[in-house]
Amino acid sequence: MKQNIYDNEVFFTNYKALREDPVNYNELLEQPEIKRMLPDLKGKRVLDIGCGMGDLARYCAEQGAASVTAIDPSSNMLQEAKNRNSHPAIEYVQTALEDAVMASESYDIAVSSLVMHYVAGYEAVIQSIHAALKEGAILLFSTEHPIGTARKEGDKWITDAEGNRLHFAVDNYHEQGRRETKWYVDGVIYYHRSIAALCNGLIRNGFSLEEVIEPIPDKAAIAKLPRIEHELRRPSFLILKARKAARP
Amino acid sequence: MKQNIYDNEVFFTNYKALREDPVNYNELLEQPEIKRMLPDLKGKRVLDIGCGMGDLARYCAEQGAASVTAIDPSSNMLQEAKNRNSHPAIEYVQTALEDAVMASESYDIAVSSLVMHYVAGYEAVIQSIHAALKEGAILLFSTEHPIGTARKEGDKWITDAEGNRLHFAVDNYHEQGRRETKWYVDGVIYYHRSIAALCNGLIRNGFSLEEVIEPIPDKAAIAKLPRIEHELRRPSFLILKARKAARP
């Protein structure tokens, strides 16, 4: 997350256009599950980690959250968030996730949408979040699925000469760590972690796992975006819901 | 598991030869992790689900378990188990997992090695195990990794013309259920389940997840069996350790 690709102008212009079209993978596949999995937000103090353009922060505020502290390292993102998604209950804060200084045992819910795969130090961030949550509080986050981040080289969907997708390619699964890809621009950095690492990083830092979700496109999503049907063929995202365990 | 391929003579003869060679995937990759993850066995009552030839049952007895109830549907397997792995603490019982009538809240530890992918009704079996365990008891099981069971057709390792493995193929991931394959004989049935289904089937039936392991071959294993190095490239097995939660 210390890389801040969202402040690259070429990247940001393209990314904004992608997210402005409501027919995209996040809106059709990931966000519906995140919203279903969130606990009742009324009167709750929410921490939104990597809030981006603030759509989810505003959703939380509109669902009755008492406060939403929405953090992001990108000034571009936060400017957009303030333009589009201002709300009296939301405070937008510019900070790298790794450096965020958060009040201790302050939040009822921490939510993070598709950010953890940009974080270099996963367990350190989980420990910070743990410290910032009240006992019994919920952490809900989504990430690119490890099956999608594993292979280092080449296109991950293997196609025939006509471009038909034959299968999805996995490789390098147990080589965890930094990956580099082209997404609008060269050199976008993300981090591959195994499913075991993601789960155990929660469990051994004081969380109990409550739900594990690999979102599946439904018929309505496929009607809006036919190629999302291929997401039935491989796991696209991983969403983990965990609770800060009571002290023994 | 109601299919009982292990009582097919062609299959069984081949399978026995495979397992008699200690240089195999189970012995090098899966069994070391299972043994590491088992809690202290001294004086404990152990249930071994799908015990096969009884090697793990005997290990548990030799580690000091007070009793090992070792169940399997295959008379071939149980005959081998009794021949090789008899022990005063072990009782071998022939029964289908789905039909096993187990005493209520009797066991401290349930262990099951590479059996769950043969079970048609995963959650029903988890519920039976839950009923058979004492409060606070451990369930530890390994299964073929969902990434390995997903694709319905074709070889899963994609190779070039010289037979070099290019990558591992994933497909049909969200189509859970019955799969058929050839393993020594045609028509070996197993069941594909998603990672989410395996984890949530534990959580929503009264278990808390304690550890998630995807075994990685170490240098010693690669020295003994060089082609096991490819198991660094994809997750081979999934091992889940869970605890029967205390009543609220």
Protein model, in words:
Chains A, B: One of its GO terms (molecular function) is methyltransferase activity. Chains A, B: Pfam families: Methyltransf_23. Chains A, B: It comes from Terribacillus halophilus. The structure is a homodimer of 248-residue chains. The first copy, chain A, is an alpha/beta fold and 248 residues long. Chain A has a single domain, classed as Vaccinia Virus protein VP39 (Rossmann fold). Helices cover 29% and strands 30% of the residues of chain A. Chain A has eight helices and eleven strands. Chain A has helices at residues 9-20, 25-37, 55-62, 75-84, 122-132, 146-149, 195-203, 219-224, and strands spanning 45-49, 67-72, 90-94, 107-113, 133-144, 157-159, 165-170, 177-183, 185-192, 207-213, 237-244. In chain A, strands 3-2-1-4-5-11-10 form a seven-stranded mixed beta sheet, with helices on both faces. In chain A, helix 3 links the parallel strand 1 and strand 2. Chain A is globular. Chain A starts with 8 loop residues before the first helix and ends with a strand. The model of chain A has no long low-confidence stretch (mean pLDDT 92). The interface between A and B is medium-sized, with 35 and 35 residues.
